[in-house]
Structure formats: structure tokens, C-alpha cells
Amino acid sequence: MYKDLKPLYWWPGMKVDITDYVSRCLTCQKVKAEHRAPTGLLQPLTFPQWKWERITRLTKSAHFILVRVNMSSDILAEFYIREVIRLHGVPISIVCDRDPKFTSRFWKSLQKSLGTRLNLSTAFHPQTDGQSERVIQILEDMLRACVIDFGKNWERSIPLLDFAYNNSYQSSIQMAPFEALYGRRCRTPLCWSELAYADTKRRDIRHEVGDKVFLKVSPWKKVLRFGKKGKLSPRYIGPFEVLEKIGTVAYRLALPPEFDKIQNVFHVSMLKKYRLDPSHVLEPEEVELNPDLSYEEEPIMILDREVKRLRNKNVSLVKVLWRNHNVEEATWEPEETMKEQYPYLFDSDKNSRTNSLFKGGGNCNILK
Question: Which site from 37, 79, 146, 362 is most exposed, i.e. has the minimal number of CB atoms within 10 Å?
């Protein structure tokens, strides 16, 4: 109409007026088809927080169960409890199509009693259950292949179909459903993955015969710590020479005579390579080790005292110097506990000599 009138007439707002006139035509409103996007925004489904929490979403894993078309709802419920709930628990919601089995009163009542919400697809949004439709399409193709290969015995291949589907790569999740569900790839006769996942956070350290390494030992002491860490933590002694490689991750060390009660073969995780430097002065360390490579810490003197004020009480603490450790590694311990376990530390004469030593700036070599 605008094209027909434009050569003959003109007025301000002519195109807008003609468009408004045509849009108000009753006949045109009844017969003209709209070529625009459908109206009504889609209602998104709740995103699942855990696997099999909302069925047909997240991991794309599936179970294929052989049932009959005329199977009653109560028997179907038994299959559901045995094959789904037994393995994955009660889901929060289920997305499914409007099959008569899923729209029956019995099925709805069962899910309601279990606390599961049914999200049924509609004609206005059939894509709601698109993931299930895609799985059904895959299953149909697999069943056709089984009928060709196995003939009348195709029913016996259902467990293999379940296994094959759940271990097939899915482009949407960038992995197989089995890996998405359990966190690792499934071991199969094809040996798809040779990677040892337990080794991803370990280092491959190797020592040669003749190398010198440190040996890790564990201090042990029955004293509370008030949450202190690192002061008397495990440390290394040595270095010792590597005599022989045992297997792939163990080594035999040349230990001194005082360690004759200890097995001289150690795992590589207990060793640390010694880096030689001409300035190092290696002296034998006087550490009495137990057969399990632990040693008991022994306090030698009290350096200081203080009172720790808590909300409901005061706790008396003493600063203790331990054998085989320097002054910087002294720790604060409960005075009452130390008196019970090491009463000789609280000898008045010994403590007076200790305090005079530190106040007078005595020779610190005796503390090492």
C-alpha cells in the first residue's frame, strides 16, 4: 500500500500511518502468518549439583534394562528400585517424555512418596527431554547391529550395550560417561589408557651407585604442642653412600656401625640427594634411632617461662631446648606436662646455671 500511494501522495509520517492502518485490519490479523521467533521464554531446568541427582542430565551415563511393552507399573517400579535407586540413590528430579507408564497415577504416586519431582516434556518444548531422545537413538542403532550379528540371541548382548555406551566418548562432555561418573577411565581389554593416575603427583627420582644421599627420620615425643608445627618436624641425617639399587624404587645404603639394627634398604621417597660442597664439614651425628627410623626427642634445659592467658584460665609455659636442635628450634610446652615427664629439668641448681649462662652471654657452642 505504501509503494502504491507514494507516487501520488505524501504527508508527514505517511509510512508510519499506513503501517498502523494495515496492522489494525481485522481480516489481516486473522489470516496473516507471523514470521518471527516463537513467543514465551523457555523455563530452564535446574542444574544438577551431583551425579545422578537429576536423571538424564550431567554425566550422560545410562542403564539399559530389558522390559516388556505390557509390563505393569508395579513391576516397572521394582526394576527402577533395583537398577537405579540401589546404585545411585533417590534422585531429586527426573526428566522424561509423556509415555503412559510415566504419566500413570501409580508412577506419579511412587515418585511423590520418594520425594522425586517429575519434569515431563510438552509439545511446546519437546527439547526438554532431548538428551534421552539422543540416547534412545543410539540404543536403536546398537540394537540393530546386535540383531545383525547375534540374531535371535540379541537379548543376551544388553549388558555389553550398556558397557559400550557408557565407555564411548561424548563430545558434549569431552569424555566417556563412565569417566564423568567415577572420575577415571574404565579399564577395558583394549587398554585405552596406560597412564597411572596415582603417579601424576609423584616425581621420578633416581640415584646411582656411589651417590651420597640423606636419610629421612621421624622425631617422636609425647608432649602436647598447642598447635605448633615445624619446630621438631621430620628431618634428614647423613649423608650416606648408595651401595646398590634394589628393584626400581629402593636403594641399599652404607650405614655406620651404630645403625646395625636397622634395615639398610630404603624406599626412594625417604632419600634426598646430597649436593657436595667443599665447605661442608661432615661430622657423625649422635642420633639414637629406633628400628622404625624414629627417635625420641630429649629436653636438656629450660630457657624461659611465661603465662598464657586464656578465656577461663591461665596456662604456665616453659621454653624447652631439645637435644640435637639449636636454640632457634626451642618450643613452648605446658609446664605441668613437662614436670610430669621430665622432673629433672626443674632442678633449682641446674636452672640457675642455665639462666646465668644465657644472661651472661655464655659460649653458644654447648647448645648445638
Answer: 37
* Least confident interval from 122-131, 206-215, 293-302, 332-341: 122-131
Alpha-carbon Rg of the chain, whole angstroms?
Answer: 39
| Better-scored residue on pLDDT, 91 or 34 | 91
At 15 the pLDDT is 93
What is the pLDDT averaged over residues 85-107?
A: 82
Distances in Å between the Cα of 214 and the Cα atoms of 220, 239, 247, 272, 273 are 19, 5, 20, 5, 6
pTM summary value: 0.40
Separation between Cα atoms, residue 306 and residue 229, nearest integer Å? 20
Whether 75 contacts 96, CB under 8 Å:
no
Domain with residues 212-296, CATH architecture: Roll (2.30)
**Delimiting residues of CATH 2.30.30 domain(s) in the chain:** 212-296
Q: Give the C-alpha separation, 166 to 181, whole Å.
A: 9
The pLDDT mean for the chain works out to 77
Give the pLDDT confidence score for residue 11 in this predicted structure: 92
C-alpha cell of residue 137: 537413538
239 and 212 Cβ atoms separated by less than 8 Å: yes
Fold of 299-367: OB fold (Dihydrolipoamide Acetyltransferase, E2P) (2.40.50)
CA atoms of 276 and 62, how far apart (whole Å): 60
